């Protein structure tokens, strides 16, 4: 194994993460054509609705019963970064904010002191299939920012910078820069209270596309960072001349460069990097705090306030199916 590869881990739906990251889910569903209510035009009687994670016929309803996705649920103490490569997400929250994003867009939401939101996957095509592919990454907040006001930022696809480089043979690699600069390419601003907002934390979230036969060098970062490369689409790639297969994660030495050489079909990677926060983590479901007492307080606060209540007619709120991509921030800054 290359000296730069510290560990390799097989991938399933929920990917291994390391401080400052808490969680990474990869949703890849090939939904059928839509019915008139933005749900799948298919029988749902064979599914455990409300808890459908089995992947029957190549797709899941998750916690949705009519429309796939995640109806209203609370968060406190961390951030969600939702990167949608295919399909759409309808956002609604307890502060009255709403949006529809997808086809390359990213939503970066700071839950902070507490917010309820729903994330539904509206199926809009009634004549063909509705593929949905997205990552949701949970980035922890340091104790000083656990209770900041909720906030979300939209990183629209057309405004998200991409680094494009060609190797000596003319084969291309592109890097979508969601967080963290690379080779002079600067990302769009992230939420102001994020761990990623402080340059010294060197948080990076990059989507890397390696063409067939392409070779590209992942540049070294600083020492002491968490750095994980997820190989989620393709066939065979060499990392520093070590042949590796798809559906694996590689924990890398952060201050070493790594040469990626594609040995098969076009390959895709997600890279997560950041300086560890190095604080105690107490997590239960949707709440992430530093102590058990803070965690108990989060539950008490949610029971008492519902983090602002739910101003929408449905807990699985979807927006007008004829509406395009949009964001309305409501009371969120």
Summarize the structure.
The protein is mostly beta strands and 333 residues long.
Can you walk through the features of this model?
The chain is mainly beta. The chain has three domains: 1-11 and 161-278, Jelly Rolls (Sandwich), CATH 2.60.120; 21-159, Sandwich (Jelly Rolls), CATH 2.60.120.10; 282-309, no CATH class. Helices cover 4% and strands 42% of the residues. The protein is built from one helix and 24 strands. The chain has one helix spanning 292-305; strands at residues 5-10, 14-15, 21-31, 69-75, 78-86, 88-93, 98-102, 106-110, 115-120, 130-140, 151-155, 162-166, 172-179, 204-210, 215-218, 226-233, 236-239, 242-245, 248-252, 258-262, 267-274, 282-284, 287-289, 326-328. A seven-stranded antiparallel β-sheet has the order 1-19-16-21-14-13-12, with no helix packed on it. The protein is globular, with a radius of gyration of 20 Å. The N and C termini lie far apart (47 Å). 44% of the residues are buried. Residues 313-333 have a biased composition (Basic and acidic residues). Fe cation binds at residues 73, 75, 117, 119. Residues 66-139 form the Pirin N-terminal domain. Keywords: Iron, Metal-binding.
